[in-house]
Design goal:
The protein is of the alpha+beta class. It has helices at about 1-25, 35, 65-80; strands spanning about 45-50, 55-60. It has one domain. It has three helices and two strands. Strands 1-2 form a two-stranded antiparallel ribbon.
């Protein structure tokens, strides 16, 4: 009789653990967040730097974002001391 009680308690604990694990699995569903899906990585500004025979520098900038191109141009002018 004593062993039957112990086995029934063990079986009950195993059933409760299985139900708890099944409940946890249903809670961990992935949800799509549209604001994260719409972000695209920024493409860098492409720079073609040239040096003339007179030791003067010229460059061509290409990219998708006009503001980033203007910022890059300002940085280049500052670094190369070009007016």
């Amino acid at each position: 009789m004593r062993y039957i009680k112990i086995y029934s308690v063990l079986i009950l604990l195993l059933l409760l653990a299985a139900v708890a694990i099944a409940a946890e699995k249903t809670e961990f569903q992935f949800k799509k967040q549209p604001e994260l899906q719409q972000l695209r990585p920024k493409k860098p500004v492409r720079i073609k730097l040239r040096r003339s025979p007179k030791s003067e520098y010229t460059w061509e900038l290409a990219g998708d974002d006009a503001d980033e191109i203007v910022r890059t141009d300002r940085k280049l002018r500052k670094m190369l001391n070009v007016q």
